[in-house]
# Entry
Amino acid sequence: MVDIFGIVMAIVMVGTAVWVLVWMRRLSGKKKKKDDPQTHRERAVWAWARIVNSIHGAAGLGGMVRVTLDLEVHLPGTPMYTATTTWLVEQEALEYVEIGKEISLKADPQDPKYIYPNGSWAKVVE
# Structure
């Protein structure tokens, strides 16, 4: 004679195992995805910064110089914070990135380490 209770228990256990696997898979798919550079650029808002330190590299092709900047960033609605960024700056515009100068820029308020120059004289190194 067939044991009905055993068959029902086996079906319930298999169903429970399938449900747990499906539920775990759904939860694992809800991880936060990393934002792409375009998203950071679109979220960026106007800010200003004072240059604390400026390290210039050698001039490269196209007259661009790699400059690493330590900045005191003043983003509207947030306290001042320090950040480091690297830009490619035109040789003629190196006077804009001297220590002590204040510059206009854009920063992503959700991820403030993403800082972009305001002007065609510099490009961010990504």
Notes: The helical segments are 4-28, 37-43.
